Amino acid sequence: MRRVAVFGATGSIGASTLDVIARHPDRFRATALTANDKVDELVALCVRHRPDIAVVADASRYAALRDALAGAGLHTEARAGSEALVELAGSDACDTVVAAIVGAAGLPSTLAAARAGKRLLLANKEAIVVAGALLVEAVAANGAELLPIDSEHNAIFQCLPGPAIHGAARPGVRRIVLTASGGPFRGRTRAQLAEVSPDEACAHPKWRMGRKISVDSATLMNKGLEVIEAHWLFGAAADAIDVVVHPQSIVHSLVEYADGSMLAQLGNPDMRTALAYGLAWPDRIDAGVAPLDLAALARLDFEAPDRAAFPCLDLAYRALREGGGAATVLNAANEVAVSAFLQGRLGFLGIATVLAAALDALHGARADSLDALLALDAEARRVATTLLRSP
Ligand SMILES: NC(=O)C1=CN([C@@H]2O[C@H](COP(=O)(O)OP(=O)(O)OC[C@H]3O[C@@H](n4cnc5c(N)ncnc54)[C@H](OP(=O)(O)O)[C@@H]3O)[C@@H](O)[C@H]2O)C=CC1
Ligand SMILES: CC(=O)[C@@H](O)[C@H](O)COP(=O)(O)O
Ligand SMILES: [Mn+2]
């Protein structure tokens, strides 16, 4: 029986994870659930899944969580604070950690799970963008099992040869091709993007996701973050990672081999496939996802991304090639800019402007330890916040 801690249980990935777990009570038990501050949603999940532990990151919500759990007649232990998340990830309460907190806030608990040698289902792409080297080293040094959950990386993982050695180049692999839906604004010019609203940006054509990743998909920064994620997961250089727009989101990514073969993983756009794969690996189990009807689909389309209308993609390549702390800076500035956009304080086109200026301002920054990375993240947020005020 796998004992699974779901970090970010109240989110979109959390819901999909708990759906798969509930389909297999013989194989999995959700022993711990976490949220940021949504106590009512977390307690409702506890009523349904009966975990041993529930954690809210926001320490001021501790009493509310404790009282609500008791009020619901549950024996689930209430915990709170960011330290409680780190402690849980490394503890005996779980052997499997689903890292589904959004943003760099998920990094400390994700790294703690790797350091404790857990099976780590990584949805929280910002953690590996911010701390790729540290995370991959921690996985290798502590015998952790890193299962990529991001749909593209899960697809690549399924298409790569041999045992999974993260960060190691694979002989015979020539190129990794990430597919991108193109987001809700595919086909628009820059001028047509100037006035788009947060709700329009969050209306993803194929996936129902949290608002931060939805905006990232709309700017193509999601694909940029995924390029950096692929570099760390699969040991591929920037020149060996390509992006192709595929609006149907049926081909989840491809691996090109030296002999001209391309292997792809296909499926309906439903994260339960990747989550079931990661939970049961190397077995295959029912995820509740319908098989593809290829004849009904009839066609699959591919096109090059519009790099001029969506400059965030190339900003991510720039950060990857620059190395050092550039990806940490890019991610932090992006979190600040996306949050400002969602609050109506920054226009859609301003997101890329802030990112480029933050990369310029902190060019050459380096950070190797967790503390140094968190300090650089904080500095980049400070710089990006200043840039919001002087566009
Ligand atoms: N959704 C998807 O299909 C996919 C998501 N991902 C990645 O997975 C991660 C989660 O995405 P998604 O589920 O869409 O996001 P959601 O916004 O739906 O959920 C985010 C979760 O993180 C919690 N959270 C937010 N801030 C903090 C914090 N500071 N400390 C601790 N917990 C926090 C939220 O708690 P609360 O509810 O209390 O606010 C919630 O449980 C992201 O990194 C995303 O890029 C990757 C591929 C696909
Ligand atoms: C489901 C998933 O993995 C998302 O990251 C998805 O890829 C977003 O779609 P885009 O291809 O539009 O970024
Ligand atoms: Mn993805």
Automatic annotation (TrEMBL):
Annotated source species: Chiayiivirga flava
Similarity comment: Belongs to the DXR family.
This enzyme's EC code(s): 1.1.1.267
Gene Ontology molecular function terms on file: 1-deoxy-D-xylulose-5-phosphate reductoisomerase activity; isomerase activity; manganese ion binding; NADPH binding
Transferase keyword on record: no
Protein name: 1-deoxy-D-xylulose 5-phosphate reductoisomerase
Cofactor needs: Mg(2+); Mn(2+)
Catalytic activity: 2-C-methyl-D-erythritol 4-phosphate + NADP(+) = 1-deoxy-D-xylulose 5-phosphate + NADPH + H(+)
